[in-house]
Amino acid sequence: MDPSFLNGEYMEQEEEWEREALLDPAWEKQQKKTFTAWCNSHLRKAGTSIENIDEDFRNGLKLMLLLEVISGEQLPKPDRGRMRFHKIANVNKALDFIQSKGVRLVSIGAEEICDGNLKMTLGMIWTIILRFAIQDISVEEMTAKEGLLLWCQRKTAPYRNVNVQNFTTSFKDGLAFCALIHRHRPDLLDYSRLSKDNPLENLNLAFEIAEKYLDIPKMLDAEDIVNSPIPDERAIMTYVSCYYHCFAGAQKAETAANRICKVLKVNQENERLMEEYERLASDLLEWIRRTLPWLQNRKTDNTLAGAKRKLEEYRNYRRRLKPPRVEQKAKLETNFNTLQTKLRLSGRPAYMPSEGKLVSEIIRAWKSLEGAEKGFEDWLLSEMMRLERIEHLVQKFKHKADIHEHWTQGKEESLRSQDFRKCRLTEVKALKKKHEAFESDLAAHQDRVEQIAAIAQELNALGYHDVASINSRCQRICDQWDRLGTLTQERRKALNDAERVLEQIDNLHLEFAKRAAPFNNWLEGAKEDLEDMFIVHSIQEIQNLIDAHNKFKATLGEADKEYNSIVSLVREVERIASQHQVPGGLENPYTTLTADVLGHKWQDLKSLVPRRDGTLQQEFSKQQTNEMLRRQFAEKANIVGPWIEKQLDNVSAIGMGTMGTLEDQLIQLKNQDSTTQAYRPQMDDLERIHQAMQESMIFENRYTQYTMESLRVGWEQLSTSISRTINEVENQILTRDSKGIRQEQLTEFRASFNHFDKNRVGRLIPEEFRSCLVSLGYSMGKDKQGEIDFQRIMHAVDPNQTGSVTFDGFLDFMTRESTDTDTAEQVIDSFRILAGDKRYIMPEDLRRELPPDQAEYCIQRMPAFKGEGAPPGALDYMSFSTALYGESDF
């Protein structure tokens, strides 16, 4: 405190005395008693005292002795004579000493003191009290009086019926004195039993306790204070200052306890974050471990329904099971970054997760999960296409095999027949022509047999689960086909031998047989085509089928003419046989076909045409719907995709720190997060359209470059980038506020970092970081010592040895160069104060000075003191303090 305070206050006091001429008698009495007690509290240290303050200081001897005791300095040797000038000389030596301490005395002379002037003597003693008892009281850079008043207000704030506003009436009921005692020594009195209505009892209780237990003499009289309308301010200030100095040691212990509480609170929070990180990491890695085998399983029950069930399980995984894990992973990274930032700011060593739980290992496990997802979905879609193709081919194989087996039924027995040996020439010729027609029919069926074999071969290639039955049936058909070929050749040779004997031929029957057989084959082929099943994936493919069908319908007119022409041959045979009564003339020896058979087949064929039209139109409508789904997905995907890319660029730009203050960036990022969450319905619409496409077996889309998988990955990257950038900005704010960095400094650090971050990735490689340090004025030599210094700095900013420097690490290094933090030595000094300068501390000391939770935290973790002379239960606070900062093996 500036001593001018004393000069100013004393001058105001002198002017007040000159105005009033006489001191208020009540105040004079209170001051005289209080100042006398105050002087005796110091003089007793020298083995003496005074009884009458205006008489005992007249010779100056006890006045000089008082100044020596309270200042701790030696005054000039006093004059021992009894003459008046000896007394004046001694008093002048005392006054000179007071003025040498920076106090200017006004209107106080040695003569007035020697003459026993009470007012001047009290003024002189008040000046001494101000200089040596009150001046050293300092609270938040206030004056001594204001600081002492603020100290009283803070200490008595929690107590009822106490409101300290001055040093007069606020202490009149005695509760303020009792509150000060109870605040520092609650064991000395029970404040809850005190009443504002008993001021005399309160005052006497406080004075007696202070004198008995606190070594503060009784300087005030309770009756004088109670009976005085306004107690003397200087008397009460003098007495309260004794309380302040008495409890100064307790104040120092409280400060030490606050420092320890602060350090322990930081350590407890760090341990909580470490435990939460370990728990989240274990849970996430365990989930990935359990999920990977399911995603790596490439087995189905070889049915399309089973594959669709597996696809539905995968959809459920992507929609319900994975999103919470994405959030858990983001929270894990956020907690880790926050923990490392807090450890750096509090001077603790960097946190290293337990084996297998490093952030890099979690990211590696997550990437393996995403790789398994991509492979699983690709495999599943491919498997569904394969099973769909297999199902179609199996049905087609059975259909063609049934037609072929129906056609070959009885053919072997007919070819082995020897019926021609008992026939007439006409009958033999008929048999020969019939056999020629059969050969034509056999050749026409060759294509169907080849199709059956090709389908069986494709089913083998696709791995159909019941391919054995397919192969067995195909082999039977092929073997039978070979036997039919052999038998056909043998019968043709036999008929040629018989033809040399029988030469008459019925040309009309032969003409019918020749024309009816191809027409019948055409009918059967057309019917098979009309009943043939198909699978298409685009409008163009179904349009090609419709065009082919329309071309087929265009040929029906010519086919109708051919049918009528063939039937006319039969009608002509019937006319001639009826006209000439030819025995057996209606039987055609060359073919088993009749006009009725052809008629029924022709009518069946014409009835299949409109049915085929309906099937094709139904499929065309389905493909139009699929095309609409493709366009809907593409239209929305071509909006959502660029939007996600734009938002990623915005987040990246904000993260570069070029868009206002950190608070502005944080607001922008939170706004960005709100915008992203509000945009979520667009992704849900895409998921709905994508599900409809998959249910419709749509696997490609030529209208957009975006797939649902790429949009999901982009969305997850956007959410993760926003969370990570918010965390980085919050950590930067935490660093700035805890280190006291100005916004201009932070802007300069960010500009330097961005200048050397050429690729705008938010990290500096060692070469870029060295250049950045050089630009900021650091001397980095190219010799061996310079490299050692640089590696030391790299170890500080990159404790996890990732090979790059983040802006958080760079900012932490730059602020650490100019700020200071709590150290292990400071914590040890704080514990030493609580322990009363002992090398150990007792549990009861910790419980008395610290909050209960932090006291128990210390007792549980603090090792036993192993030194000599310590009582049982003594704790080693030095090892505990160094362990907090990673400086021991504790």
Description:
Keywords: Actin-binding, Calcium, Metal-binding, Repeat. It holds the Pfam family Spectrin. Belongs to the alpha-actinin family. GO terms for molecular function: actin binding; calcium ion binding; protein-containing complex binding. The protein has 890 residues and is mostly helical. It has six domains: 27-257, Orthogonal Bundle (Actin-binding Protein, T-fimbrin, domain 1); 262-386, Methane Monooxygenase Hydroxylase, Chain G, domain 1 (Up-down Bundle), CATH 1.20.58.60; 410-500, Methane Monooxygenase Hydroxylase, Chain G, domain 1; 503-618, Methane Monooxygenase Hydroxylase, Chain G, domain 1 (Up-down Bundle); 632-797, Methane Monooxygenase Hydroxylase, Chain G, domain 1; 824-885, Recoverin, domain 1 (Orthogonal Bundle), CATH 1.10.238. 72% of the residues lie in helices and 0% in strands. It contains 33 helices and two strands. The chain has a two-stranded antiparallel ribbon. It starts with a helix and ends in a 6-residue tail after the last helix. Mean pLDDT is 81; it is low at 1-23 and 501-505.
